[in-house]
Amino acid sequence: MLRLSCKDIGGRGDKFVATGRKVSSVKKQMWAHAAKKHKAMLKKMTPSKMKAMDKMMSRAIAKNKKADKKKKAHKKRRR
């Protein structure tokens, strides 16, 4: 399961976490959340900044996936 939180991409004080099996699904949830809860921020973003944010989301999802995989392997070793 993939995950992405607002905190992962620089959000503070927001506990929203998007989850899913596909990167596109997780990012879609995050963009929908941003449109609903962070309208002012999105309004200020230029197309290039939105593209950069999308890339940041992809990197954060990959980083979380790697960290989750490591945790899972560590748990297996401890058994």
Q: How would you summarize what this structure contains?
A:
The protein is mainly alpha-helical.
Largest sheet: 2 strands, antiparallel
Question: What structural class should be given to the helix and strand makeup?
Answer: mainly alpha
How big is the Rg?
14 Å
Residue fraction in strands: 5-15%
* Assembly state of the chains shown: single chain
How far apart the termini lie comes to: 22 Å
Reading side by side through the largest sheet, how are the strands ordered?
1-2
- Regions with pLDDT < 50 over 5+ consecutive residues? none
> Can you count the helices?
3
User: What's the total number of strands?
Assistant: 2
The shape is elongated
Helix content: 55-70%
Mean pLDDT: 93
Order of helices and strands: EEHHH
Description of the structure:
The protein is mainly alpha-helical. The protein has helices spanning 23-37, 39-44, 47-78; strands at 2-5, 17-20.
Task: List its traits.
mainly alpha; elongated; single chain; 10% strand; 79 residues
Which SSEs are present, and which pair or pack?
Blueprint lengths: L1 E4 L11 E4 L2 H15 L1 H6 L2 H32 L1
Antiparallel strand pairs: 1-2
